Amino acid sequence: MNSDDITQKIQDAVDANFDAQLATTRDFVAIPSTRGAEGPCQDMIADLLRERGYEVDDWHIDVEDLRELRGFGPIEHDFSKARTVVGTYRPASDRGRSLILQGHCDVVPAGPRDMWETPPFAPVVKDGRMYGRGACDMKSGTIGALYALDAIRAAGLKPAARIHFQSVIEEESTGLGALSTLQRGYRADACLIPEPTNGKMVRSQVGVIWFRLKVRGHPVHVFEAGSGSNAITAAYHLIQSLQQLEAEWNERAKADRHFGKVTHPINLNPGIIKGGDWASSVPAWCDVDCRIAILPGWSVADCQEEILKSVAAASRGHRFLANNPPGVEWCGFLSEGYELKDSSEAEAAFAKAYDAVYGGAVPELAFTALTDTRFYGLNHNIPSLCFGASGAAMHGFNEYVDLESLRKSTKATALFIAEWCGVEKV
Q: Which residue, 164, 148, 166, 174, is CA-closest to 76?
């Protein structure tokens, strides 16, 4: 079978099995796998891998095993049920290049259900789209990678190299699921993560720092509010100072070779605010959870120090905080940015697959979010590609994935596996 025949047979196999792929994706999206509740999704993936004959490694993550590793982020919630699932395919004779295929099954909270047009965990297909929380980010990509492997088999072929199919958690908050696979010892010659990238290859991506401002005020009855100190308004004073830091970092980003062309790549987000106990009492406390991006090559520790200096400077100029300084806690991501480098062979293999499906050269993306590729690339120099389908409203209402783009990205994934790992007849 020549190369053109293999390419056509694999693409035809994706088409033939696409309805089944969507049915599996719908079942996967229907599981509300928010933080701490990912177990049923991991059960489903483990079952799908066993059905296909892969070796399945399903383990509970021990945070203490990861604490000293590069990229570790602190955990604050109950982690006792946290699991990683890896399915391994091993050829009879290993002749090709090995590969990690990885996807995360955790999703962010859906928010108020009445603000969705369709229920977030009852996925709906209409107008060429699948709607539901996680349909785009990134359950459709994970299932797409699994069906890409199926397409190779349906074409009468089998990969000629070892493949680790990884389903991880915590991508949306710390990345410890991906980190656990490396601690467990999984390695390969390349990695592909099919996050939704609108059919572009992520060339460079930001890192992220999560932190919590802990502001304490002085409570009094509202009728004498002037004699107290309002922790909520004091927190807003700190946020304004951090917005100035955000502006400074965006000026610094203009010198970056990838992000210099991106408008406002550094975003500060005060994402959660809690404070006060009573509407007629001046609030004595306010906690604000924030997220801010950093660029590849920027030191997490140095950026943490800048955050602390910004908060301290703002406090010195505040009547109450000057003598009652707020606290800053690191409460999740402490992640470096990642730039795809030293990956010419993997990129050449993907370029060939892309051209067969889309035609032309692979467009590139400087990504103002982060992905798990950083762990494989930064910790072990594994070339880590990130490419996937199109969609919208990730982390928002009415999230969806475009189904035709998913079909194409599944084909490109399958052809990349065949090109990178090599194939032989069953």
A: 174
pLDDT of the residue at 115: 97
What are the percentages of helix, strand and coil residues in the chain, rounded to 5? 40, 25, 40
What is the tens place of the pLDDT at every residue in 161-201? 999 999 999 999 999 999 999 999 999 999 999 999 999 99
Distances (CA, A) of 4 to 7, 216, 287, 296, 350: 5, 67, 59, 39, 16
Residues 156, 122 share a domain? yes
> Do 135 and 190 belong together in one domain?
yes
Q: What is the pLDDT of residue 121?
A: 98
CATH code of the domain in which 310 resides: 3.30.70.360
Q: Are residues 23 and 155 both part of a single domain?
A: yes
Quick one: DSSP state of residue 358?
T
73 φ, ψ (degrees, to nearest 5): -125, 140
**Is the overall model pTM greater than 0.90, yes or no?**
yes
CB 348 within 8 A of CB 415: no
Domain that holds residue 196: 3-205+337-425
State how many domains the chain has: 2
Residue 2: per-residue pLDDT = 81
CB 198 within 8 A of CB 283: no
- Omega of the bond prior to 44 within 30 degrees of 0, cis? no
Q: Are 159 and 152 in contact (CB under 8 A)?
A: yes
Instruction: Tell me the CB-side half-sphere exposure of residue 125, using CA atoms within 13 A.
Output: 13
> Which residues partner with 104 through β-bridges?
168
- Pair 140, 389: CB distance under 8 Å: yes
Given 335, 367, 400, the domain boundary residue is 335
Domain boundary among 294, 312, 335: 335
